[in-house]
Design brief:
Layout lengths: L2 H29 L5 H15 L2 E11 L3 H4 L2 E10 H4 L14 E3 L5 H8 L3 E3 L16 H6 L6 E7 L5 E11 L5 E2 L3 H38 L5 H21 L4 H16 L10 H4 L7 H7 L2 H7 L7 H12 L39 H16 L10 H10 L7 H9 L1 H10 L5
Antiparallel strand pairs: 1-2, 1-6, 2-3, 4-5, 5-6, 6-7
Helix pairs in contact: 1-2, 1-7, 2-7, 8-9, 8-14, 8-17, 9-13, 12-13, 13-14, 14-15
């Protein structure tokens, strides 16, 4: 080969590596601005695929094992899966639905073995894994979808204390012509560097999530209905509804991602004001009397008052949602136009009673969480009722459009119903 051509090729290769590392360094800063744990996981998977030009991938996190005596204390649970090839077959704005499953941290699966050994695994051809490899490839997804998985790169996510936090698995590296190729040694270096920094940001977000769930646990000690799975579902529904609303309204991607981040955290705290309601009312194993219900309505004001920090976007949105998620589109909800700090009426009727917010006077976050909260409540068992059937729930949601709920958002709710059900399956009630 011509020496000059070799030199040009080497310079191009060096320039590409420099560009890739600069991108990763810039990415570190961007990831540090994401506060929600789940949204950070989704972004980490997206960027990991982008760094090594992977067509698809999944991200797993560690969770308590279902059978610790057999499988050990922890398992790997899938959180997000992405696939560009399959995504291109969907309508604009739609998201890929994927199976929710877990794998044991052992030698049987590739991701499990990666978690067990805490070492990177690079497989050029998933259908030609060496016979002496302890793990095997489960090709059921390929058979089900018609997608051909060829190359894979699996990397552990380790905390600063070397504790396993999760695993990233990226699939089907592509070259500049779009051909599927093996992942290279350079890809291994890039994704190892990326995973190290991503794990640090993930550790920070995990601490934030843990603090929020402790607040929810405090509420749960007072109100058995306010469970971690309930608030995770409500927050998940809220983000999916907003995502499609933003798509329809052509919200810029950067603005959309920022709002989703604070919406996910803020909506988890929608009912935290219930900690200020007496046990006699909060734990009553029956429906409230009109007097009790009036007292119960104050949880919106108490909750909003907890977030009276005008310097934090999360607190501002949490205050709005806590205050307004029981307002009705037609103005008949509660608590109406009240000051969240003093509780004084800001707008009153002729009798001096607070006027209710209506229509778009209700902030978008409050209108979205209203739908998410009612849907989950109708689907869930309560001390005074059994869960409604899916048919009953959906009929009720449609019936309340234009009175309790924003009609546009209800249309969006039904438009993304498969995503809503998928989110519901991610956070099942524990026994």
């Amino acid at each position: 080969m011509n020496i000059d051509l070799i030199k040009v090729s080497m310079k191009e290769d060096m320039a590409k590596k420099e560009t890739d590392f600069k991108y990763i360094m810039r990415l570190d800063s961007e990831l540090n601005h994401i506060q929600d744990f789940d949204l950070l996981l989704e972004r980490i998977l997206f960027e990991a695929r982008k760094v090594v030009h992977a067509d698809a991938g999944s991200i797993y996190v560690t969770a308590p094992s279902d059978n610790p005596d057999v499988d050990g204390p922890e398992k790997l649970s899938i959180k997000y899966s992405q696939n560009d090839t399959i995504q291109k077959t969907l309508a604009p704005g739609e998201k890929m639905i994927y199976s929710i499953f877990s794998v044991a941290i052992n030698e049987k699966s590739i991701s499990g073995y990666c978690g067990l050994t805490k070492k990177l695994i690079n497989i050029p051809d998933m259908y030609n894994i060496p016979e002496d490899a302890p793990y095997s490839f489960y090709s059921s997804f390929d058979r089900l979808t018609g997608y051909k998985t060829t190359s894979s790169l699996t990397i552990p996510l380790l905390s600063t204390e070397e504790r396993l936090m999760g695993v990233i698995q990226v699939l089907n590296a592509t070259d500049s012509a779009g051909n599927v190729v093996p992942f290279s040694a350079d890809d291994e270096v890039l994704i190892t560097h990326f995973a190290t920094n991503a794990a640090i940001t993930l550790q920070r977000a995990y601490i934030t999530r843990a603090m929020i769930l402790r607040m929810i646990k405090m509420s749960e000690l007072r109100d058995p209905k306010e469970t971690g799975t309930h608030v995770n579902r409500v927050a998940g529904y809220a983000v999916e509804i907003y995502d499609r609303w933003a798509f329809h309204h052509n919200v810029p991607k950067e603005e959309q991602e920022k709002f989703k981040d604070i919406l996910k955290i803020s909506s988890m705290l929608h009912d935290v004001g219930k900690v200020a309601i007496s046990d006699a009312i909060l734990k009553k194993p029956a429906r409230f009397t009109p007097e009790e219900f009036q007292i119960m309505q104050n949880h919106t004001v108490y909750g909003a008052g907890l977030f009276n920090d005008t310097h934090s976007t999360v607190d501002l949105l949490a205050m709005e949602i806590a205050m307004t998620h029981h307002e009705n589109w037609d103005g008949t909800g509660y608590p109406g136009w009240l000051d969240p700090v003093s509780g004084h009426a800001l707008r009153t009727d002729a009798e001096g009673k607070p006027l209710g917010r209506k229509g778009e006077e209700i902030p978008l976050g409050g209108r979205i969480v209203a739908i998410a909260d009612v849907f989950d409540a109708l689907c869930s068992k309560r001390v005074y009722k059994e869960p409604w059937s899916e048919e009953q729930v959906l009929e009720e949601m449609r019936k309340l459009s234009g009175t309790k709920f924003d009609p546009e958002l209800i249309d969006i709710f039904f438009e993304i119903l498969p995503r809503i059900k998928h989110t519901q399956s991610m956070y099942p009630e524990t026994a």
